[in-house]
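Lab notes, practical 5.
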Amino acid sequence: MVLSPLGHSQSLDGVKYEIRGPLARRAHELELAGSDIIKLNIGNPGVFDFRMPETMRMAIIENLKQSDAYCHQKGIFPAREAVVMRLQNMGIMDVSAEEVFIGNGVSELIIMSMKALLNPGDEVLVPSPDYPLWTASILMNDAKAVHYSCLPEKDFLPDPEAIRAQITSRTRAIVVINPNNPTGAVYPESLVQELAAIAEEYGLVMFSDEIYDEILYEDAKHFPMARYVTKTLCGTFNGLSKVYRACGFRVGWISFSGERAHADEYLSAIELLASLRLCSNVPGQWAVQTAIGGYQSIGDLTSEGGRLYESREAIGESIAKSKYLVLRQPAGALYAFIGIDSKALPDFDDQEFALRLLEEKHVLIAPGSSFNVAYRNHFRITLLPDEHIIRDVFSRIEAVLDEMAL
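Output from the prediction step:
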């Protein structure tokens, strides 16, 4: 019997996630051949010896005996109630535990929130650059991701009027990522208010990805979208992966606030999807209450003298010395979105550069075009390595760019 070629679902046409794509697979091949690779393509704190607060680990250990069974499809009550208390501390008072869903990381919840909402031909406004899972999750539902520009020359901040001009009769939602991945931009309060007003004016769902909300540098301040969206539905995403350095636990949450009377069917659809996967990882959920209610050690890492702060400084200093690189210093999150001076390297291609850097210098980065931008003169790295590794990486980057300039 000759088997027919096994193709893929057409719903995946156009779906990309290059952060773990061909470059990452090539890096794995080099590792298997004995090379040491510095992996700057993913914000994965544990790889760089960051650890979650010990109290979170103890909370899981102490509750393992309660973790053998499935829990409620929305998650365990103590975790959801802790999310509610956190929101109340931020001035968001209209959420109960019933409006909180715990997922296997924010990634699962993004996919579920799009699956429950979209029909073929629907449109969702997504920032460019974006975290590419947002675009992918829209395309998987035969819908259209309409990218609104957050340009380097505007400090990667969107133009509300340009967003307004992109709204059509098929637009269902707006996605905001703040603090932003990949750029590190943190939106001022006035901009958050303007984006909230647009969602309310057109009755759009506002999806606010705030997984980096406490990773802020110097005088940057985060303004939660849910504080300003009251006349339409707002879904806020957060979790343990970044602020609490617990990526492997796969614990995220979405909380729904604002106007909900018109959204019963949609919220029921999300609960249906949550039920179909039974529940999310139970042991990790026991860390949520302790994480949210405990000492917020992320501030020690992001303030002057902290490891993330010093790595960010090392990136800025290295780029200032470069003949080729430009940077809008990230105000938040775990990344730097680095540009190439087009006068110094007019023919620069981010994919070509990333492959050469990997093959010749054993450094893995994410090309800027991975984040749904039209230009090809940027790349993203994570701030997670210590400052000594950062400086070494930039000496390797400069060497490759010198070769490309010849």
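Observations recorded by the TA: Residues 387-405 form the longest helix (19 residues). The domain at 55-293 is CATH 3.40.640.10 (Aspartate Aminotransferase; domain 2).
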